[in-house]
Specification:
heterodimer, A: 95 residues, mainly alpha, two-stranded antiparallel ribbon, 3 helices, B: 483 residues, eleven-stranded mixed sheet
Chain lengths: 95, 483
């Protein structure tokens, strides 16, 4: 299993990671070797086996739909790269 | 003092032979002396640490001490600790100060333990050598040219160099056990769901589990009593009755059935490491354990399965780092999409990016059944291997890692070779079982770890097995030269 440069660029776009042509060239071989490793799975017959998503056979807990957190907007916004009037700032998305 | 057990340190505190402030200062002094070279810690905060120590002294004076009150513990930098810089080894979080405490941190704080500092780690816990950390590699105290293992490499080096009384780690595919093996200490990954993941920065949520890294199994039992327990804020935390993990430490081992998986002693295991592990197994025979040959036939498949499931979960978990509410944001960008792409390209290191790309690929349209679903099906086969094995034995023993500590840089350019470091540990995470590594001896002056795998919730029995061995051997008490 090997990837093309186009594949890597498409995946990187889906993952929202900027990659240069040099990055793509440098990562192609390593990504392909990992996919080669993963390919070993295809030799196993898994017909009829229930997928295992979780180590314990337990149900998701539910809780009452009530407020459990206190408002700490200022503390949390002190961590943000850019805020104004209590709002997080990002580049304009609506003209 | 530095080689004393937690119990001995607590006795010194109780008898006023030393105060927690004095003990903490002694460890801080050692950190000042050795950390510039070893690089086990990313962040220190003397004021916070000594304030906790002073509070612990007051509590001890009032007669309210718990077993860990006043004991200086190093915390892996994956745990959010309020007011502490919490980086997860990444540039993405290089300036992140946690606004809240992880469940694990709360529990240590509540019992009066002292947070000595935050330890170095592979970026977002992705690595087996600590070389992917944004904050530089960590030296193995036994041979400074070698890696300490990873991802909890800073915690392992801190315990090995006696720069703390004990430390915490997290283990997604071997990240507690492999560094414990490579640095000559004891490390336990508990049953999935026993220790809260709340505030523990997520890598692969269905596999991540926190546990103790310490000098002995007795120390780990005391730490498990603090760390484990239900937390409603972690949706996968198990609501079970509280256990005392020290309860079985001194039980005799006569009649204990120990399974030896043939796959763990096959091709790929370094011969000298195999010999040391066999000698440890002989010691268990003398202690009255019975050896049973078992098979875990899907062991080799655990690596491909893990490298589908863990990157898939990571690509989802790490999508939160978008440069908007916290974390790194690029200085220049043209629009929102460009801001996301540049911030993530700059904030993540190459191994993290590689895993995000693999995870994105295996989850992308048209590939889900062939990769993700297939991996979940084989995950069940791997878990069933253990269910079958535990019909014949009580615990499983084998090597923790296929070799001793390797040279820094040796595997850095070959991800697949690096991934093989976890060949004996990954299946345990996939099954959600508890696994532990204890020092079993040395090969060419480098520590060798023996792994003990237990059935679900069998930590007390595993700690019993480890403790019994540590009563008749002294591998766990040996210290590297020059520290």
């Amino acid at each position: 299993m090997s990837l093309s440069s186009t594949d890597v660029k498409r995946i990187a776009h889906l993952a929202r990671i900027e990659v240069s042509d040099a990055d793509v060239a440098a990562s192609l071989q390593k990504l392909s070797s990992i996919l080669g490793l993963i390919e070993q799975m295809q030799a196993v017959d898994t017909t009829g086996i229930t997928p295992m998503s979780h180590a314990q056979d337990v149900m998701q807990r539910l809780r009452e739909d009530i407020v459990t957190e206190t408002n700490q907007r200022e503390l949390f916004q002190s961590l943000a790269p850019a805020v104004q009037n209590g709002l997080y700032l990002v580049p304009k998305v609506i003209e | 003092m530095i080689n004393s057990s937690i119990k001995q340190l607590a006795a010194m505190l109780a008898s006023k032979q030393i105060s927690s402030v004095e003990m903490t200062r002694e460890f801080l002094k050692r950190i000042d002396q050795h950390n510039p070279a070893i690089n086990a810690y990313i962040s220190l905060d003397r004021d916070k640490t000594l304030t906790q120590a002073a509070a612990a002294d007051l509590r001890i004076a009032q007669g309210n001490a718990a077993p860990l009150t006043g004991i200086p513990i190093a915390q892996k930098d994956i745990f959010c600790a309020k007011g502490w810089k919490t980086t997860c080894g990444s540039k993405m979080l290089a300036n992140f100060t946690a606004p809240y405490d992880a469940g694990v941190i709360e529990r240590f704080d509540a019992t009066g333990a002292v947070n000595l500092g935050k330890t170095n780690m592979d970026e977002f816990a992705m690595g087996s050598s600590n070389e992917t950390s944004h904050f530089g590699k960590v030296q193995n105290p036994w041979d400074r040219s070698r890696v300490p293992g990873g991802s909890s490499g800073g915690s392992a080096a801190a315990v090995a160099a006696r720069l703390c009384a004990a430390a915490t780690g997290t283990d997604t595919g071997g990240s507690i056990r492999q560094p414990a093996a490579l640095c000559g200490l004891s490390g336990l990954k508990p049953t999935y769901g026993l220790v809260s993941r709340y505030g523990m920065i997520a890598f692969a949520s269905s596999l991540d589990q926190a546990g103790p890294m310490a000098k002995s199994c007795e120390d780990m039992a005391l730490m498990m009593n603090v760390m484990s327990g239900f937390d409603e804020r972690d949706s996968t935390s198990l609501d079970r009755a509280k256990e005392d993990y020290t309860r079985d430490l001194n039980k005799p081992l006569a009649g204990l059935r120990v399974g030896l998986p043939q796959e763990y002693f096959a091709e790929g295991l370094d011969g000298a490491v195999g010999t040391v592990v066999q000698q440890a197994i002989d010691e268990y025979r003398k202690l009255g354990a019975e050896m049973v040959d078992i098979s875990l036939p899907n062991t080799m498949l655990s690596i491909p399965v893990y490298y589908v499931l863990a990157p898939a979960e990571a690509s989802s978990n790490l999508s939160r780092y978008d440069g908007v509410r916290f974390g790194h944001r690029a200085a220049e960008y043209t629009d929102l999409m460009d801001m996301y792409c540049k911030s993530r390209a700059e904030g993540f290191g190459s191994e993290v990016k590689r895993r995000i790309l693999i995870g994105t690929y295996v989850l992308s349209a048209g590939y889900y059944d062939a990769y993700y679903l297939k991996a979940q099906q084989i995950r069940r086969l791997i878990a069933q291997d253990f269910t079958e094995a535990f019909k014949k034995c009580d615990i499983i023993m084998g090597p923790t890692a296929p070799s001793t500590a390797f040279k820094a840089g040796e595997k850095a350019d070959d991800p697949v070779a690096m991934y093989m470091q976890d060949i004996y540990t990954i299946a345990v995470n996939l099954a959600g079982l508890p696994g532990m590594s204890i020092p079993a001896g040395f090969s060419n002056n480098l520590p060798v770890g023996m792994q003990i795998i237990g059935n679900y919730f069998d930590e007390a029995r595993m700690l019993n097995a480890g403790h019994a061995y540590q009563q008749v051997t002294d591998w766990h008490l040996q210290m590297p030269e020059g520290i």
